[in-house]
Write a structure and sequence with these properties.
Layout: H1 15-41
Length: 60
Amino acid sequence: MAPVPEPEPQPKLSTAAARRQDEERRTALRIIRNELRLLWRDPPPYLRPGPEPVTDPFHW
């Protein structure tokens, strides 16, 4: 079995750039969570946003 190559090191970010990147991630997560919550509240008739009841978590 071949050894797994090491990932390339990422360049160090300045404090301002790191804060901006963290804020972008938080914003993206907030948007995704909000959209998922809206799907759960009022799903389209042809779509269910998750397995319920959980009989087969791989069948959506």
